[in-house]
Specification:
- This protein starts with a helix and ends with a helix.
- The chain has about 120 residues and is mostly helical.
- The chain has helices spanning about 5-10, 10-30, 30-55, 80-110, 115-120.
- It has a single domain (about 5-55, about 75-120), classed as Helix Hairpins.
- It is about 70% helix and about 0% strand.
- The protein is elongated and about 65 Å long.
């Protein structure tokens, strides 16, 4: 494999780097907001990776009519986009719930530091 192979697949490398940054933030940071931001970065990297795998060069939208000749190789697969849209909605629900919990934790303990909360609990 040469360097061109890596340049042609840069989107995979970007998603892996984003995943590692998010994983680092979730593991190494003590602040709950920073941990949560790391979780959002991981989610976004997974979305990017999944959409990158579904990419098809020179594909057309899968809008078919009765009189069209169906050639599957020319059409983009709509399923990955639908799955990612569903995952984004789920991520939004997780975000809203986690932020509400973080606000409640701050009101209860007066801090967002995970080790201090563990000591107080």
């Amino acid at each position: 494999m040469n360097f061109e192979f890596y340049l042609l697949h840069y989107n995979y490398w970007v998603s892996v780097i984003l995943f590692m940054i998010g994983l680092y933030a979730m593991i190494a940071k003590e602040n709950l907001i920073k941990k949560f931001m790391g979780l959002n970065i991981v989610e976004t990297s997974i979305f990017l990776f999944y959409i990158s795998m579904a990419d098809k060069a020179d594909a057309i939208a899968p809008v078919l009519y009765e009189y069209d000749q169906i050639n599957v190789d020319q059409h983009a697969n709509p399923l990955p986009s639908i799955i990612i849209l569903t995952a984004i909605v789920i991520a939004l629900a997780i975000t809203a719930t986690a932020l509400a919990l973080i606000i409640r934790i701050y009101e209860e303990y007066g801090t967002l530091n995970a080790s201090e909360i563990e000591e107080l609990w």
